[in-house]
Amino acid sequence: MLRFLLRRAAGYGVLATVATALGYVLASLTLHPAARYAGRTPPVPPSVVHAELAALGVDPGVPVPARLWHWLTELVTHGSLGLSVRGVPVTAEIAARAGTSLRLLLLGSLLGALLGVAVGTWGASRQYRWPDRVTTVGSFVLLATPPFVLAVVLMTLAVRLDSAAGRTLVPFTGEYTPGLAGGWPAQLGDRAAHLLLPTLCLALGTAATWSRYQRAAMLDVLAADHVRTARSMGHTRRSALWRHGVRVALIPMSTFFAYSFGLILTGAAITELAFSWHGMGEYLVRSVVDDDVNAAAGTVLFTAVLVLLAGVLADVLHAALDPRVRT
Could you give the residue ranges of the DSSP H alpha helices within the chain? Predict the structure, then answer.
């Protein structure tokens, strides 16, 4: 088991390194940091632009492989991801924002996965009956709805609920209410209330995707020999479904979890912008808008590490569900 996990973690480490290097190269080739100095009044002298870009390590006059080597060397030897275009260390900005995104991603992913598995299993066990048709239509509606539209719908519903109640029940702007009086229970409750709608927005989209995969996996398992054998040995349909069907159907879903985590971060970027959360998703968008190569590369590294951790967790779940892969 330990050897299996170490072998998988080593493979994920290589993939994360390659993805980060490619992310830096792609950001260097597509972003143009010098464009930030164009059109200023008075004009910025070229020597000043050159000096500032060189200080950031993004001078376009230096070949990309040389810049990548310098960036990787600083990362390995000093743990530095360079400076952003605002002169702030990228590692400091990621450290300040990572907790915000992780709180949203972990809750949204976990809730979405649990809800998606439950809905997919329920629909498959009642194939072509009204629960299956309702969950199928609901899933496709959510899949066809962009995250920012879903966020606007949820905010509109929250505003109507607040209007009906005569006070704010579901705050949704920012992570907390500035200047809120009271001790830590009030602060904790306020943060939980602000977390509700962004988490729901992320979880609904995730659950819609998971439910479709889980339904397909369950339909394959329900027709398998081991489920029919369990029924012939006296197990009830519910017992055979949960003890011999869901467990097998979850094996491919564990792999899907690892490789869908990167896509979840993309949806989280839109969700963070819609609800004014200052997390890594917002940082990624701003790094592209500001032509910030170091910030964009740092965000790619953050995403690669998250996918790596999700992959290891998925392998642990896979090994727990299927003993054959432990050898």
Answer: 2-30, 46-56, 64-78, 90-125, 130-143, 147-165, 184-222, 225-232, 237-240, 246-274, 280-289, 293-321
